[in-house]
Every structure is written in C-alpha cells, then in structure tokens.
Write a structure and sequence with these properties.
Structural class: alpha/beta
Helix content: 25-40%
Radius of gyration: 17 Å
Low-confidence stretches: none
Shape: globular
Bound molecules: 2-phosphoglycolic acid
Mean pLDDT: 97
Length: about 230
Amino acid sequence: MQFIIGNWKMNGTRKEKDTMTATISRKKTSARVILCLPFTLLSGENHGVLIGAQDISEHDNGAYTGDISGKMIAETGAKYVIVGHSERRSNHDETNKMIKTKAENAIKNKLIPIICIGETLAEHKSGATKAVITKMMKENLPISGKFIVAYEPRWAIGTGLTPTPEQTAQIINMIYEYLKKHNHGTTPIVYGGSINATNAKSFISIPHINGLLIGGASLKTKTFLPIIDSIS
Ligand code: PGA
C-alpha cells in the first residue's frame, strides 16, 4: 500500500478543507491518503479522510503557551502527526533529541508520527548525506511503536529541485536496511520534496518507497488529485 500525505503547512481555510476532503472521499484509489492540516482545521467534518497534525508538543500538559499536546491532537480525531519537518528544525530550532521525544509522545497518544529526516544542500554537496541520515535515524527514531519515515532532502522542499531517482533509491535503500536491522522492516518509507503530478510516478516506483509527502501540490485539488491518480 502507498501513502499519499499532504502537508498544508500554514495554509487553508475550513471551506478549502471541506472541498478537498469531500473530493478525496469520492475518489477510488488504493492509496492511503492523509491530510496534515493546521491545528485549527484538525477537528470537524473530514468526509472520512485521514487527518494528521504538523507538530506535537514534547510535553503532556502545563505551562507551554501555544503548544498542543498529543492528547489534544488525538481528541480531534487525527491519527497522524508530522514530526521533525525541515521547517520546524530551521524555524523553531528543533533538535534531534526534541524530535525523538515528540515522536515517542505521539506513539504514547496512539498517533502515528511521520518522522522527517533529510540533509541540507551543503551536506548534499559535500557528500555527507549518508552520514547525516544515519545520525538522524539513530537519534530521531523511537525504539518501538508504529511510525513512518519521510526522507525529505531539505534542499528539495519547495524549491522545484529533487534528487535523481537513482540518488533517492540509494538513500531509501539505506533507510530500509537500517530499519530492517532494527526490527522495523515493515515501517513505511515515503519521499518528500518538490513532488508534482509529473515526477510522482518516477519516485513512487523506487524500490522500498511506500508513498509520497507533498507540500505545495497538495493545496489544490487540481494539483493533488493527479498525484493520487498516479498511484491508482
Ligand atoms: P513541497 O514540500 O512538496 O512543497 O516541496 C514538501 C514538504 O515540505 O513536506
């Protein structure tokens, strides 16, 4: 089964969520479609479409103004949460340690974390990708529980640039072997970064890829539905 995960980031109104989820619910697809929405859109009508959040607090409750706990997310009916997205790492100084705690917190609250790992452009250029990804897997992934790994090269997010399918295949294979060695052989691995209807198929056909994480192209039905179609 392939996952098609939309990440709306800080975009979208309730009306736009309604249109998108109603449209997806009418689609015949073998893919598991998940929409990761801003906190304010998590609750309410979703026409049976799976919903995820984009961040989770490291803490359970208390004096953390502006933060949202795993329990609060679970109470909305959301089943997934993105953890460690590149924009959280850059804009909110999230560390590997924080990200692991967030992932564990999600699992504790019966949410499935979608844990993002990826190298910067400088790391990519200097040939450090494999070392960076290995370190992130060691430091970000929970020991047990269900989760999804999203390989998102940070330089590919929102830039229109992607690694070649060959480069991607190498990294995905490395992630797969690591997970297998650590008793997570069935953990889904998705790719994210500048996916659109034109390139979706070439990424989805890479061995051991179980889906795609899509930002910009997930915002409109016109650009998102053709990506779902490329799976069906
Ligand atoms: P993009 O974003 O598809 O717009 O590159 C991907 C992501 O941020 O998850």
